[in-house]
């Protein structure tokens, strides 16, 4: 019996692969993956005028009412196809393209879609708008015309023959082909009960993916539907709100032909249970649409130990009342006043500790280097007396005397001790991502801790005023900022103990932390004020702060700091930082440490480079 079942499964798998391959309209041998082109497409999109905060991501399949062939009906394919679309927050492209038999044409199609999206605006009529955007793009960049024509002619050869369609579908197909050949030439399109075969050169209306998360959630439950980190999907799912009627009585009708409907619904109570249900995550991965309800489920026989926030007796020590801060909403182009609550804290369990012995040799070397900066002397020019002749001043005096304009000026140079009129605040990211391992021995948090210790040793040697803080967040109600050293405190064993007591946790709401750090640094009287941010990733949190919202808020916080006369600078170990940090901090406002283990040594060196001029 078991052998028979195995043979049936083997035959079934062979049939499935055969019929699916025969029914597919794609060319697998010429497939191009979005993941290979993603960064280049993002750069191209922004280079031709696309919004800098828009992310290039994979699009999920969309339901289409198409006329399918007999093979496609048997195989059950072509019911959902990924289509390109864009909105204010993201550009969604198919995860792979194999619509042409030529590999280079599929790559060219990705580039064309990125260019078209940069030209696109609000969509009111799918066909007329795409024609207009195409025409404007070709007028703006005439060199694109041969490439566009090559894509069009190759695609038209693959489209359905209008002679095999009914009159309404044939008329629509002919109109679309004409619109592709001559953009803008067709203004009226015939109606048809079935959708035309997808046009891969055009953008489609945006899907409302974020509406269920942004609708009627209260402040305590405004979180997104999450998947365990090791099973995160490449594409975002569609979602809709439903009324959960489990508590209502009624007659249940059971029909055997509905057994396959299990794949369309899975209960996942995110508001009441944060445990990782791996089975539910795998099922959700296969779903086309997620239905969300307000139903709370109760589970018995279990004890939940890991809560959103730790108990008060083991949490960090709060300092005073919470601080209300604004947050930038790019959709409204306005600051939301008193939107974020930030709580200053001290690491619990910290005790005065000396510098770890393993860091002592490197600390001594850095201290010697920074002590030289404190003793550096500066040459003052055009002095009435001094140790050396100021050749530039003498030449100016000689030229002026030749022309009869002899002004009094000093002709000597004098060397005097330099005065460093600057202050620095270092802000360290302590989110849960810093708990990741760099190798078998070190985590990211260990590297950040060592960096803070050596940074403090170096600046204590030079005598520059400095402060050290860490930050993390759990939604806008819980932005946590750990006070390690204020400007008024000495760098001593108490500070070293607080640094060594740091623990990673939660998320990265950068904007609020930068605003509070800017306020603290802005109170310093020094002429130059440097705000350093050390992080391992991009802004994120459980609510809408994920994605463009967080990037835009962080960018606005950085601009606010610059307007206040501060110099914000970001040091990161994220290898993908080039995708978002230039937009947030500017091309010269950040640096990437490609070997994170070098951060403790590189951080003091970067400080020297930033403050020597």
From TrEMBL:
Coiled coil: none annotated. Gene3D superfamilies: von Willebrand factor, type A domain (3.40.50.410). CDD domains: vWA_norD_type. It comes from the Bacteria. PROSITE patterns: VWFA. InterPro entries: NorD/CobT, VWF_A, vWFA_dom_sf. SUPFAM superfamilies: vWA-like. Residues 421-610 form the VWFA domain. PANTHER family: NORD PROTEIN (PTHR41248:SF1). This is Nitric oxide reductase NorD protein. It comes from Pseudomonas pohangensis.
